[in-house]
Specification:
GO terms for molecular function: methyltransferase activity. By secondary structure, the protein is α/β, with parallel strands linked by helices. The protein is built from eleven helices and ten strands.
Length: 263
């Protein structure tokens, strides 16, 4: 057992990590899933690249980016998750953990923790209202409001450098994260949900304004692109509107012109 796997196993029995135990069990320890993830992200991430993981949770994507040889800045506002990230990657000097939330501006943001299911904790009150009474979201409660530090993607870039890829998964707050970005990047992804499709539409408009040229998506937690062809933002917007409600969630991937021609 390597050091990271050992840290994960220790966390699973740590009373202070009880709130994230299910996440650790789901997201670690499946070699086939890890191999599929690495093969998927290899189209965006190369050895020596810098990657930002915004909404890192317990760091399974961080692990993939590191296996691909990237340097990673993992941004996560929940203390239980950042403790886990620091424990799992404590011996890895290429992983920087930032306990904060990315937003439109630097300062402080109200954040709603879902104690029973912290993977869907959010800074978006609109997301919580959309989930209220929605099919598939029954019983979810955001029961622990806190204030968390916020910073911007531009601020992260100023401190750490320009990333080759940014993964954004922040439960309905993706448009606010992108509002803090004022420059094009080679590639990024943002999560969407079918309970709040307007967020994805705002993200597409923002990215188009920043110069992103081509888009694709993955449905659910699938490590595969849903379309054989990359598409312009208007077609992606239509695609997202047409998805069945039961899809629930997925990730949109955006490429700048430079990366589109390089890959």
């Amino acid at each position: 057992m390597d050091a990271r796997a050992g840290a994960v196993e220790a966390l699973k029995t740590d009373p202070d990590a009880v709130s994230i135990r299910r996440s650790l069990e789901v997201y670690y320890g499946d070699p086939a899933r890890e191999a599929a993830m690495d093969a998927f992200y290899a189209r965006f991430v190369r050895r020596g690249d810098l990657v930002f993981d915004i909404g890192a949770h317990v760091g399974d994507r961080v692990g993939s980016f590191r296996r691909l040889g990237a340097r990673v800045v993992a941004v996560e506002p929940q203390p239980a998750c950042t403790r886990a990230l620091r424990a799992i990657y404590r011996d890895d000097g290429e992983v920087t953990v930032v306990e904060a939330l990315c937003a439109a501006g630097a300062g402080s943001v109200p954040f709603s923790v879902n104690s029973a299911n912290p993977t869907i904790s959010t800074a978006s009150p609109h997301f919580i209202r959309a989930a209220d009474g929605a099919a598939g979201w029954e019983g979810e409660r955001w029961d622990a409001p806190v204030d968390v530090a916020s910073l911007t993607l531009d601020g992260l870039i100023a401190e750490h450098g320009v990333p080759a890829f940014v993964k954004i998964d922040v439960e309905g707050y993706e448009d606010e994260v992108l509002a803090g970005l004022g420059r094009p990047l080679p590639a990024l992804s943002f999560e969407f949900t079918t309970i709040e499709r307007a967020v994805a539409q705002r993200c597409l408009r923002r990215l188009t304004g920043l110069g992103f040229q081509a888009f694709n998506l993955a449905l659910g937690d699938a490590m595969a692109l849903a379309s054989p062809q990359w598409m312009a933002a208007p077609r992606m917007a239509t695609y997202l509107r047409s998805l069945p409600y039961e899809v629930n969630s997925g990730d949109v991937y955006g490429l700048s012109r430079a990366l589109r021609h390089r890959r």
